[in-house]
Specification:
Number of helices: 3
Strand content: 25-35%
Radius of gyration: 17 Å
Structural class: mainly beta
Shape: globular
Strand order of the largest sheet: 1-2-7-6-3-8
Number of domains: 1
CATH topology: Elongation Factor Tu (Ef-tu), domain 3
Helix content: under 10%
Number of strands: 8
Largest sheet: 6 strands, antiparallel, barrel
CATH class: Mainly Beta
Order of helices and strands: EEEHEEEEEHH
CATH architecture: Beta Barrel
């Protein structure tokens, strides 16, 4: 099996002005052009769940009250995963290339969470017009905006 190496490119920060990504200095040039986008996908490391016990979990009880029972971790958004990688979408509120910061309107990550990658949201690649999910999942918000308004966290 191949060994992978992932290094943080920055961290989530929660400041008085709200959440933002603070990049490490070598990655500041990577911000060029991001200001043309409205939203980003942030891949981050569930650092507080990076331990042998959580990495060994293969089934979880979903956070949905009507779930039929334990589900495979790949059918969940659980922080317990073989590799504790999380994906969040956020609206960009500002890009400060000089300071290496990307302002976010909301995030479900905690202050100090390592960021491993950032990708612009693109409807042509990221939006699914006709998606399917189980009926018992229907008690969760139907959009990013509704999740943000509800203050949902993992």
């Amino acid at each position: 099996m191949q060994t992978l190496s992932i290094r943080p490119i920055g961290a989530i920060r929660i400041g008085e002005e709200g959440p933002y990504v603070e990049l490490e200095p070598p990655y500041l040039p990577a911000l060029k052009g991001l200001e043309y986008y409205s939203h980003v996908h942030i891949l981050w490391w569930f650092s507080r769940r990076d331990n042998p016990a959580d990495r060994g979990v293969t089934q979880v009880h979903p956070a949905h009250g009507a779930a039929p029972g334990p589900m495979g971790v790949f059918a969940s958004r659980s922080p317990c995963r073989p590799n504790p990688i999380a994906l969040s979408t956020a609206e960009i509120t500002f890009v400060d290339a000089g300071r290496g910061r990307i302002g976010l309107d909301w995030t479900d990550a905690e202050d100090g969470t390592p960021v491993v990658d950032i990708k612009p949201y693109s409807p042509g690649l990221d939006r699914v017009e006709d998606c399917r999910e189980p009926a018992w999942h229907g008690d969760w918000p139907g959009s990013y905006e509704a999740s943000r308004a509800a203050g949902n966290k993992y």
